[in-house]
Amino acid sequence: MYIPAIKSALQTARREKRLWLLAVLAAALGNLGEIEIISASLNLTNVQGNALFSFWQGLFASGIFSGAGLSGIREAIGINPLAVGLVGLIYFFVFIFGLLAIWLTVSSQSTLISALANKEQKLRSIWKHGRSKFWAVLLMNIISKGSAILLLFGLVIAATAGSATATLPFIFIYVILLALVLVISFITKYATIGIVTEDLKVKEALTKSRKIFTKNWLITLEVAFVTLVVSTVALLLWTVLSVVIALPFVALVTSLNLSAGMSGALLITGTVITFALLIILTAAITIFYWSLWISSYQQISSNRLTAWLHRRFGSH
Predict the structure, then answer these.
(1) Fewer CB atoms < 10 Å away: N or C end of the chain?
(2) Nearest to 127 by CA among 33, 279, 18, 8
(3) How does pLDDT run across 124-146, given as a tens digit for each residue?
(4) pLDDT per position as a tens digit, 182-208
(5) Strand, coil or helix: 303
(6) Where are the domains of the chain?
(7) In this structure, are residues 192 and 107 in contact, taking their beta carbons and an 8 Å threshold?
């Protein structure tokens, strides 16, 4: 199953150039899913929990919410209300921009899934359908990412409890919590596909996706492994290409007696080319990622998919 599915997903990523912009926007919600969760959990344990909450720790440590801090804010408003109002206005626009970014990325994700499941439809109608699923898909992302944050918070507590992170109790907690995060990620992924492609309600989608994962957890892990390998290879390829592209520009700048302006122009050109490749690769990986998961979901739903390990080593 996986070789034809991988080829089909790669061909879709290459052919469907009309979806590249949607894919790049959707990637802002997390393109590599399980890879990002594992990476985040490792980073949390390495820094003993400070990375995730450093902003809030610094904010509370500043004393802004204390009596003296609030009194200082009132005093600043009385002394220079215009400056305080301007700062508030800036934060307001940042907040509005954040809401717009959330709407755009979530709508792009649902539209991308709809487009990959219905390749023959026009993009305008697919965009309309994708936007209609905004709230349900947003809820799936909140459940997935919110659960990840809450469960990984347990790693923060365990890492800062005074015991070494290499002890057996911590390793046990780490494995259990990470497994829960990954299970929730898989279930919400299936639910998102069901909501967009089958017009399921949130409760129906979660119920169906839970049953799909329970009965087909081995297939799910295999698909996740395939996406991990392909995404890792693609990122390594981009790294190699970036170095190959950068070398001529660096050689020109260092070997020729160029003016500062010319050197800067060459370096900027190399950076733009590398960044453009990254955008294209991001779009391709995102399309491949969702194509493979959609294909797996559809085949599992119709009982047409069996785990490779089961076929290879299972009873006959």
Answers:
(1) C
(2) 18
(3) 888 999 999 999 999 999 998 88
(4) 899 999 999 999 999 999 999 999 999
(5) coil
(6) 2-8+20-307
(7) no
